[in-house]
Amino acid sequence: MKQINRTDLDQILKGNGIKARLAKELRFPVLASDQWKNIELLAVYTKDSNKGVLVLSPGNYITALPFSINRRVADQRTGRLKPIICDFCFTYQKGSNAAVITFAKGAQSSMSHLCCADLLCSSHVRDLTPVSTYSRTQLHEDLDAPQRVERLQQRLKQFIERFEAL
User: Fold this and answer.
1) Distance in angstroms (rounded) separating the CA atoms of residues 106 and 108
2) Rounded CA gap, 134 and 89, in Å?
3) Which residues make beta-bridge pairs with 81?
4) What is the pLDDT of residues 42-60, one digit of tens each?
5) What is the mean pLDDT of residues 10-30?
6) What's the pTM?
7) How far apart are CA 87 and CA 103, in angstroms?
8) Cα–Cα distance between 85 and 104 in angstroms, integer?
9) Which residues have C-beta within 8 Å of that of residue 1, sequence separation ≥ 6?
10) What is the pLDDT of residue 141?
11) Regarding beta strands 41-45 and 51-56, do their DSSP bridges make them parallel or antiparallel, or are they unpaired?
């Protein structure tokens, strides 16, 4: 993703029809200039960290989608936290780092996905986190980092297309 600042984010939000109230509540993260080249998705949260905007850049364009996130994926019978495989990056996450993210389009349409609770999918596919190494051993995955990055970009493009079709 190209490096953006708060002004750029505000332009992206306006271009994607994000409500002004949500845009005002967002807390833009501070990243070093060298971190931007390794990001396909960036979560920008509100103060309570349960909702925000997911800024996606799977190719040459940038889009933003409002979301809400529930960081507890529990078994309904036992109440135990369940491990998941992230729908975006295919990283195996223990129950303590699993979440359900919901994207709403209007009052009638929404879609939900299992995801990494930290939404650091770009770092996970590049093996920049301890979770990613653990995941590769659990899933016996033999793709290298560039192949996983390509898969993440393709998944994000498909996700954007499905969201726009809602």
Assistant:
1) 6
2) 14
3) 74
4) 999 999 999 999 999 998 8
5) 94
6) 0.92
7) 14
8) 22
9) 36, 37, 39, 40, 42, 55, 57, 62
10) 84
11) antiparallel
Domain boundaries, the chain: 6-165
Whole-Å CA distances, 145 to 36, 39, 152: 17, 13, 10
Give the H/E segment covering residue 19. none
56 neighbors 62 (Cβ within 8 angstroms) = yes
The pLDDT of residue 136 is above 90: no
Residue at token pair 């332009």: 11
Q: What tokens appear for 20 in the block?
A: 């002004």
Residues in the chain: 166
Q: Are 93 and 83 in contact (CB under 8 A)?
A: yes
Residue type, 100: V
Q: How many CA atoms lie within 13 A of 18 on its CB side?
A: 26
Interatomic CA distance for residues 7 and 54, integer angstroms: 16
φ, ψ of residue 57 in degrees (nearest 5):
-140, 70
User: With pLDDT > 90 as the criterion, what percentage of the chain qualifies?
Assistant: 73
CB count in 10 Å sphere of residue 159: 20
Output the six-digit token pair for 89: 């990056």
Q: How confident is the model at residue 106, as a pLDDT?
A: 80
Rounded to an integer, what distance in angstroms lies between the CA atom of residue 8 and that of residue 4? 6
Given a cut of 90, is residue 76 above it in pLDDT?
A: no
